[in-house]
Design brief:
Number of strands: 5
Strand content: 5-15%
Largest sheet: 3 strands, antiparallel
Distance between the termini: 27 Å
Radius of gyration: 27 Å
Number of domains: 2
Strand order of the largest sheet: 4-3-5
């Protein structure tokens, strides 16, 4: 693992690698940011909980009841406050009563392991963030391995170019290229977490600085 070991394994060095990797990405496919990556887990967490992990509620200021849908709130107005709000003001009242509320974290499911890992935003972000760290490090290791293989193959190709019309050499080159393509398209099960033992995860206290 030359790329990782070059930086060392202390907290500062590991945080430096994570900052370069920008391992965090919004997990909502309809996000306006697209494939934007986040260098800081705190910035990623703030984005997800402020932009996505929210729900709309309608709060009735006349009786303090809350409703999960606009339709239910409209029915409530008709049935309970028809004499209190003029028809011409209903739409304005509905709009003014809408609130964006944070979802209950205990019901939020990790998209990687399908568990509900925490009852706090920080705990949820720590759990899901570590999955993203693992994926980014595994991809880094894979790219490093691939780069070494590609350099080796290019060296072989250069030496083969000196031969006159050797079809077998060209065939070997093509087979090596095909082998690398197979490696690149292997499933996520092949991104073995055991490869990350030489580059331990950072403590939350360091990552969230």
């Amino acid at each position: 693992m030359p790329v990782l070991l070059e930086y060392g394994t202390n907290d500062f060095a590991r945080k430096h690698v994570y900052n370069d990797l920008e391992p965090y990405i919004c997990l909502f496919s309809d996000c306006d940011l697209g494939l934007h990556t986040f260098q800081s887990r705190r910035d990623w967490k703030d984005h997800e909980f402020k932009a996505h992990r929210m729900k709309l509620e309608w709060h009735c200021n006349l009786c303090q009841e809350r409703f999960d849908t606009q339709e239910l709130f409209r029915e409530h107005i008709d049935e309970s406050h028809g004499n209190d709000i003029a028809m011409s003001q209903v739409e304005e009242y509905i709009s003014a009563s809408r609130r964006r509320m944070a979802c209950k974290v205990e019901y939020e499911v990790c998209p990687f392991c399908l568990t509900a890992p925490s009852q706090t935003q920080d705990g949820f972000a720590s759990h899901v963030g570590k999955h993203q760290q693992d994926i980014s490090l595994a991809a880094l290791l894979r790219l490093d391995d691939y780069s070494d293989d590609e350099e080796s193959i290019n060296d072989d190709k250069d030496s083969d170019d000196g031969d006159d019309g050797d079809d077998s050499s060209n065939g070997d080159y093509d087979r090596k290229i095909a082998d690398i393509e197979i490696i690149r398209t292997q499933t996520e099960n092949d991104l073995a977490p055991t490869k990350l033992t030489a580059f331990e995860r950072l403590p939350d206290s360091v990552i969230d600085r």
